[in-house]
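Exercise 4. Each item below gives a protein and its sequence. For each, produce the structure-token representation.

Item: TonB-dependent siderophore receptor (Nitrobacter winogradskyi).
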Amino acid sequence: MAFRLEAVKNKQGTPFTAGSLRRITSWLLASTILCCAGVGLSSPSLAQQPAPAPASAQSRAVQFSIPAQPLPAALDAFIRASGWQVGYSTRLTDGHRSTAVNGAMPPAQALRMLLAGTGINVSLTGANTATLVGPNSAAAGGAAPAGAIALDTIDIQGETAWGPVNGFVASRSATATKTDTPILEVPQSISVVTRDQIETRRNQTLNETLQYTPGVLAERTGQQQFAPRFQVRGFSADGFNGAIYLNGLRGATNWSDIEPYGLERIEVMRGPASVLYGQGQPSGVIALVTKRPSEKPIHEFQLQGGSFEQRSGAFDFGGPVTEDGKLLYRFTGLLREGGNGIDFSNDKRAFLSGALTWRPTAETEITAYSLHQRNQGRWNFGLPARGTVLPNPNGRIPVTRFIGEPDTYNRTEMTVAGYNLQHHVTDSLTFRQNVQYSRESWERRDVNPTSVGADLRTVNRRAESRHVTRDTFAIDNHAELKAMTGPLQHTVLFGVDHRRGKTAVLGNYGTVGPIDVFAPVYGSPVVWSTTDQYAERQPENFIGVYVQDQIKLDQWILTLGGRHDWADTSIVDIIGGSVTDQNNRAFTKRAGLGYEFDSGVVPYVSYAESFTPLSGRTFDGSPLRPETGVQYEAGIKYQPRDMNLRITAAVYDLQRQNVTTADLANPGFSIQIGEVTSRGFEFEAVASLTSNLNLTAAYAYNDARVTQSNDANLGKRPVTTPPHLASLWADYTIREGALNGLGFGGGIRYVSASAGDFLNTFEAPAYTVVDAMARYDIDNWRFSLNVSNLFDNQYVVGCFSLVQCNVGRVRTVLGRVSYRW
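Answer:
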């Protein structure tokens, strides 16, 4: 039986008072290691009145503007406006049209008005939940006639910003606001890769999950099975610079590629995000949400095999632990091994995650989660430019060539444990606390290229070993208040977050012989230094206080935010005995304004800032100032009420300032006069037009240039920054007849040429890649086949220098069988 799955909680109620403030502040003090204080937002007239008793969700007034239209589309609009959860069968609603509903009224009254004339009744099942029933249903007060088909009562959990999405089109996000907000109301560009998208494309790495996302270069370092590297709007966005967050917190993904099978959704917010997240690059935030416990039982086994001896097995279980639904669980695991087409590229991965959700009361929910992942493989340093993207008299270097040594390795291990707590203090006040501890280790022994000989076939190399461990504790506390001041509706967020980390680094260098890339002979011995070349400890401590107000006046939406950060870091040189302390303070701002038309069109403008602390000092001993980012963005979003479709388009002007550049008067030192400017346009369309057809389309134009520098790169493009990215994906599933359950589809990705070195003396050429998929569902079984790079196009993703050009994935075929019950 088909049913709608689109609803969220959206509690509004009594104004915030000084008494409420004292209660929530006391709770924050008792439940966290930080002290929080806040200011209530209310008009003078409201502040002089005693706080009224909390209004029920059924009686509070909500502004509705829903035109007459097909009933399923009208119900979708009602759910988005009210935040109610409505369960119904499409057999009941299809073919009916709604009555128009306009004005401020209680949601229950609006829902009954919407259904006027259809003969369908409403059964209220909770403060903000309802089920639609037929006119003769027992729930509607009548007895079902003999021979009638009884409609199942479906208890559904609607979409939330942290939960699963039905199909390709997400309607809500918390990444840009830390509140459960419709994407239409966010004045910044956001893309959501849903679980269905990941499953359909059979993504095995984080890099692969974002290949169809606008503005994201997802294969920047070529074929790597760990340590994802992204570029967003011309700037780096990966774990090293803090762009990747797990369940709302940073610290768990510095070097590790989290297994996509364990993720529920991936969100990309493009542009500065320091107002809510503190230090970070101006590229934005990549937010990962792990699979959560489910009210619906989940049981799945998977087996996979394919090219380059790839093989894997996985399982996913979840559902209620107790009959009353107060305790839910999720348990997911995966083992995988295989190559990627590069010589000696055999990789291994083990992943295990678990989660428990406990709902002791209707107002409180806590989800505890943990995961452990281990990876082992070899880092692929690419190939020289001459022989890949430039002519070489010796011929073309095979793209499968490995220029390291077979006995090298990269091993990463990651353990994460944390929880997400949400408590509704009143109908209008919600407290959330996110806590996470992570430990990562990265052990590598590499042989990497340094230069190319005059014969254009000999690659000189060096060896490096490194062992890094990192422990991070992060906590984020925030209170969300919904209040009214006259005609203004406020969603105020006040929060304090804290992150504390310690990194230990131990490294060594070695000498190793060169290699002939056209006729390689492996086994060259490595001679290591007898003592460690570097050993460091890097403690860090970050505290931020932030406030945000999302204000609505009729159809106007204004978002304002500000944050103050304290960032304290140190580098302790164990061998040299020196200590370098860096203490930075920063205040960042964001503002956005949008207008929501009745048609679902929302034009908007926004301004946002970022900051990134730097380590080091100038020649005169002054500490380096933080890098800063400033973005101006204007765009339009469209999500019609009668279609499962979202279209977004945006133009932006983004500047990264205080960039270090060489101090020509004092060699070996840097000065901060550098600036990189990135301007561009982005478009995205995502649709699940029916239960049969899914579509995604994306295009991005980015003009990134070095606009201030005292070096020769002034006016040049940064490396691996293609100006054009485009992609299209479509898949179709037959739902009836003899071929019921057969699905097929594919996608095409285009990446334009990009600068290959610092001075733009050569380019990595443009490339186009085609992917394809087919699947067949029968009973509880699913058989699927996915092909990456269908036509085996040999391409280079990008070059960092004449020595290193990273090759893309060769044709890879994966077959998978899944059993679900």
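Check: Residues 18-31 form the longest helix (14 residues).
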